[in-house]
Write a structure and sequence with these properties.
It comes from Roseicyclus elongatus DSM 19469. Pfam families: adh_short (PF00106). Belongs to the short-chain dehydrogenases/reductases (SDR) family. InterPro entries: KR_dom (IPR057326), NAD(P)-bd_dom_sf (IPR036291), Sc_DH/Rdtase_CS (IPR020904), SDR (IPR050259), SDR_fam (IPR002347). The chain has helices at 16-27, 39-48, 62-76, 99-122, 148-167, 186-199, 203-211, 222-232, and strands at 7-11, 31-36, 52-56, 79-84, 130-135, 173-180, 244-247. It has 253 residues and is α/β, with parallel strands linked by helices. The chain has a seven-stranded parallel beta sheet, with helices on both faces. α1 links the parallel β1 (7-11) and β2 (31-36). Bound molecules: NADPH dihydro-nicotinamide-adenine-dinucleotide phosphate. Residues 11-12, 14-18, 36-38, 57-60, 85-89, 108, 135, 137, 180, 182-183, 185-188 line the site of NADPH dihydro-nicotinamide-adenine-dinucleotide phosphate.
Length: 253
Amino acid sequence: MQHHGRHALITGGGTGIGLDIARALAAEGAEVTITGRNLARLQQVADETPRLHPLQMDVANDASVRDGIAAAAQARGPVAICVANAGIAEGAPFATASPEHWRRIMATNVDGVFVTFQAALATLGPGDWGRMVAISSIAGLRGLKGAIAYTASKHAVVGIVRGLSEEYMGGAVTFNALCPGYVDTPIVTRNAAQIAEAKGISDADARAYLARGNRHKQLLSTDEVTAAALWLCSDGARSVNGQAIQIAGGHVT
Ligand code: NDP
């Protein structure tokens, strides 16, 4: 129960990687605010697990994040652990990608991390302990064909934690990013369905195709990402700061 009494906030905490991290932090004693746009789904998972607290919040909407995090802090105390996980993964060939596609991805994946960390940090006092983790991607470290906006957005996430680690150097708050390869979550299920349709192949073959994007050619499970997140949020990871950690079955870049 290393996080007993601490308040953690996970954006996109109602599904996939975010939910798995939320449950693990709650098991370690934290009171965990899980956020997303779909309140019914958040409420449902909160009903199933002690110490999860649902909060409707759209990370692409500044006021929604600032008001939501301030309210969560009022209810459960300063946000000592913040996992900026909410994100969307949409591909489009560069030549035909629309400005709306670009802006939608940037608003969620980049602006969302910026405002989430800013609002979470604002709840902490001088010298307070904190762990800020952002979920980037292998696309935050190398180029991904047919997904320029996603690639740029995830590179920006790495830039945010590197910059913040310098700006807050010497304090008790650390900033790191996790860069997973293909993880078996609703995002991969949706992508596999699209690939299956586009290529005229089975769903299983489409999943195998995505798995080959990982160096060991296997889809990751969410608990592999969670294990790394738990470590970054631990007291022992005090000196790990400004890192972008690859979880992809091998060296990416
Ligand atoms: P999910 O689709 O399950 O999770 C995405 C979450 O983000 C959902 O809970 C969704 O909640 C939330 N979300 C999306 N847009 C918004 C928004 N505007 N405001 C608030 N919440 C939002 O997939 P994953 O768990 O896989 O994705 C989590 C993160 O991991 C993403 O950042 C993704 O890019 C990253 N990632 C995933 C990989 C994978 O292979 N699965 C690989 C590398 C990185 P709601 O719908 O309720 O808003």
